[in-house]
Design goal:
By secondary structure, the chain is α+β, with helices and mostly antiparallel strands. It contains 7 helices and 7 strands; from the N terminus they run E-H-H-H-E-E-H-H-E-H-E-H-E-E. Strands 1-2-3-4-5-7-6 form a 7-stranded mixed beta sheet, sandwiched between helices. The protein is globular, with a radius of gyration of 16 Å. It starts with a strand and ends with a strand.
Length: 200
Amino acid sequence: MSRIRPFRPGDEAALADICLRTADLGGDATGLLDDDRLWAEVFVLPYVARHPELAFVVETDDGRVAGYIVSAPDTDDFERWFRTEWWPRVAAEWPLPAAERTRQDGLLRYADSRGAEPDPYQSGGYPAHLHIDLLPELQGEGWGRRLIQTLAEALRERGVAGVHLVAGAENAGAVAFYPRVGFVPLPGPPSVRAFGMRLS
């Protein structure tokens, strides 16, 4: 039977694969960029490098990792680290484009801009943020709710007051899912939908 367990070293390749296969508004993003590796370098691998204690995976009964949740307990701190330590090491392989002509250009420019401004949700009582992804075989089975509950408890144990996330406005599945598991809508630009959950 599938189970939730803490992230452990060696899971990175599986997490990168899941990230890629869910990066296109919940669908498979394979081939959308010149280099598929970029998705994970922005959206999952920095989290397990910085906060492995706040990463949990769903392991299937045949030993595969098919879903995960990762988090940073202090978004501003994480984004400063991403900007000054993580991204400079990673970005050496992908020069910053002068303009956004492709989807990869846009992702590189987004990554390069992270940490330049304070996070708007941190000061509103939602200092942590998360990313969660499940392969289709796990979707609709309650694993998303259980991963969020597991992370919420871990954040509460650390005294974190709240957690937020941002989803693409066109990601209908995500936009419908988060209110069902205890998140409330937060203000945001039209291109995204932001949600928060109080933990104390």
